[in-house]
Design brief:
264 residues; mainly alpha; 12 helices; 77% helix
Length: 264
């Protein structure tokens, strides 16, 4: 039980650190079991730590979310059109991954990802992120977003069903490709994680995934709390420095990771 606790703590820190960075959190969560044969807590643990990161992003963007909710309340008079449109864009961008998630849920739950497939996903999608960062216009703010652009971002995010692709990385890639500046690309990707992670949690509940023992609850609570704390700090630090550091360090990391995994 003690060993499981520390393993859960490690995995939760990995999740909290990688969920909102343009690297693959799902791939990193698989590494300990794939590389070292450690215990795999299963998809239910992934959902618990994703729940922690969801709590983190809800707390960090609470003021933005309050404005979005107010803009969408049916009895609101003089609603803020910019907030209303942003909420609409988030809904549109969520639809592709909901559709892909529903039709491929069995594949996702099977967790049959090999080191080689994760490596190639890192290489391919890191290259795409580098292209988007280097050659996109990056001259738009969230105010310049359109329904078509939001849908395009959502379609890129839907590719995150492949371990190694990175949900946040694909959402940022899509946002950069449609011309959003790097800070607003990151913010939109973070806000987009809210309905995406929430949808995954709801899907798991509907599939009766939460049949748990007392020991399971301790592990899941550890995962939830640790991932929430680390994710909150990651969001805060990333948004403070993303305009300075850009995407190149993450691209280099993912390319190096992919090459190392191919050599294993």
């Amino acid at each position: 039980m003690i060993h499981d606790f520390f393993l859960a703590l490690l995995l939760a820190c990995i999740q909290g650190l990688t969920e909102f960075l343009p690297v693959s959190s799902s791939a990193h969560l698989l590494f300990p079991s794939l590389l070292f044969g450690t215990k795999d807590f299963g998809l239910i643990f992934d959902i618990a730590v994703h729940g922690g990161t969801l709590a983190a992003v809800l707390v960090y963007f609470k003021d933005d979310l309050i404005r979005l909710i107010r803009a969408w309340l049916p009895w609101t008079h003089g609603r803020n059109l910019e907030d209303f449109n942003l909420g609409l864009y988030l809904i549109i961008a969520t639809l592709p991954i909901v559709f892909v998630g529903l039709i491929s849920s069995d594949l996702i739950e099977s967790r049959n990802s090999s080191i080689e497939s994760i490596a190639w996903a890192n290489l391919v999608f890191a290259g795409l992120l580098l292209f988007a960062f280097k050659f996109s216009s990056q001259n738009k703010s969230l105010l310049g977003l359109t329904l078509g652009a939001a849908l395009a971002i959502g379609c890129l995010q839907a590719l995150a069903i492949f371990p190694g692709a990175s949900r946040s990385g694909m959402a940022m890639t899509g946002a950069l490709l449609v011309g959003l500046n790097i800070k607003d690309s990151s913010k939109f990707a973070f806000l987009l994680s809210i309905p995406t992670i929430l949808g995954a949690l709801v899907l798991m509940v509907l599939k009766d995934a939460f049949i748990l023992t007392a020991d399971d609850l301790v592990i899941l609570l550890t995962g939830f709390l640790a991932s929430a704390l680390i994710a909150f700090l990651t969001i805060k630090i990333f948004l403070q420095f993303v305009e300075r550091i850009g995407m190149t360090p993450f691209v280099i990391y993912r390319l190096g990771l992919g090459l190392v995994l191919l050599l294993l």
